[in-house]
Sequence to fold (206 residues):
Amino acid sequence: MNFLQNHDQIGNRALGDRLEWTADARAIEAALAITLLAPMPPLMFMGEEWGATTPFPFFCDFKGDLAEAVRSGRRREFAEAYEMFGDNVPDPLAQSTFESAVLAWPKDGQYPPRYALIRKLLRVRHDELMPHLGNAAFASAELRKNDRLLMAYWRLGNGSLLHLRANISDHNVTNDASPIRGRMIWGEEPPARLPAWSVFWSIGAI
Fold:
């Protein structure tokens, strides 16, 4: 199972901050295009489908000695964060900490553009990949360290080859690898220079 973030990763950060707080939105969307169209089952954390920025700090409702042990344990674990952020680090036992983790749903169903992107990716997954995931198998992958060009291949259950090519960097890179095979299912035919954070998927014969 693949994912970019989950309740443990977010909840076990001192402030409960999501990727949206610090990561380049283009990088997140490239990662989503890779995660949601790879054959492995994808997992999305609540609100990730629209780019929610609601924090998800660790919270609990323990009582007595256990409650104090959790509170002091968190202070030891995140001593550096407490030194930096002080009282801004949420108290795991406070009602307000729990309330801050509740999703702020878009009003009147007016979701941000990220939501449309996720719906499109899931539609492609449903139509192009799901019928052929039985007996799918990983074939090979390469990440060029000098320019962050990622290439990966899987053999799908119907005998076709799923091909990923992605520029996972913040600058354009030369697309000088062997031509991408098959029919494009995400992105147009890759150009000679791949834009920053661009992702391309194709399906073709082996």
About this structure: The chain has two domains: 7-53+106-205, 64-100. Residues 47 and 98 are 16 Å apart (CA to CA). The longest helix spans residues 113-129. The helical segments are 7-11, 25-37, 64-77, 79-85, 95-100, 113-129.
